[in-house]
């Protein structure tokens, strides 16, 4: 609840990868390919972005293993 309030008032805190994170974050490009480009971005700190990158790498590996 506090985390959501902090984000709504515009403080630059990470939105979190696995739950609330109160570290400073910044807008970063995710390894996604959504048609709506605004969905390809996340507001995250360094450690949460590593988790997000690992998640998407696993998803792409799974996708490509089924295609090839």
Describe the structure in your own words.
By secondary structure, the protein is an alpha+beta fold. The protein has one domain (about 1-65). The chain contains two helices and two strands. The protein has helices at about 1-10, 45-65, and strands at about 25-30, 40-45. It has a two-stranded antiparallel ribbon. The longest helix is centred in the C-terminal third of the chain and has 22 residues, at about 45-65. It is elongated and about 45 Å long. The termini are far apart.
Shape: elongated
Which consecutive residue ranges, at least 5 long each, have pLDDT under 50?
A: none
Structure annotation, total helices: 2
Q: What kind of sheet is the major sheet?
A: 2 strands, antiparallel
State the oligomer: single chain
| DSSP, total strands | 2
């Amino acid at each position: 609840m506090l985390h959501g309030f902090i984000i709504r008032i515009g403080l630059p805190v990470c939105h979190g990868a696995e739950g609330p994170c109160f570290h400073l974050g910044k807008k970063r490009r995710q390894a996604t390919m959504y048609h709506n480009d605004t969905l390809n971005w996340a507001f995250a700190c360094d450690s949460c972005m590593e988790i997000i990158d690992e998640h998407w790498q696993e998803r792409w590996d799974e996708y490509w293993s089924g295609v090839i």
